[in-house]
User: Fold this.
Amino acid sequence: MPQARRGEIWMIDFGLAQKPRPAVVLSVPYEGEERALISYVSRTTSARKTRFEVAHQGRGFEPGAFDAQSIATVPSVRLMRRMGEVDAVTLRQIERAVQSWLGMSSHP
Assistant:
């Protein structure tokens, strides 16, 4: 089973729900008897420029954004392949967008 790390971009198989797409991993690696789950934020090429999106342009990617409104969790067996990783600044922006979407931030 692949072991994804926080900040890595993976192609994820969403099954019948939707086509596979890239997503950035937000969860920490699981250990021992913990559930083999990965929490992520999906990447879209249909950005709407909302306050919950973080623009992303990377080598091998069409221009797009990580959409904090699409945070979810899947079993690690759904990970298809590692595609890269985001830099520390982008990861922090994604974290802030998720916090804002979930009403967990003290800053607007």
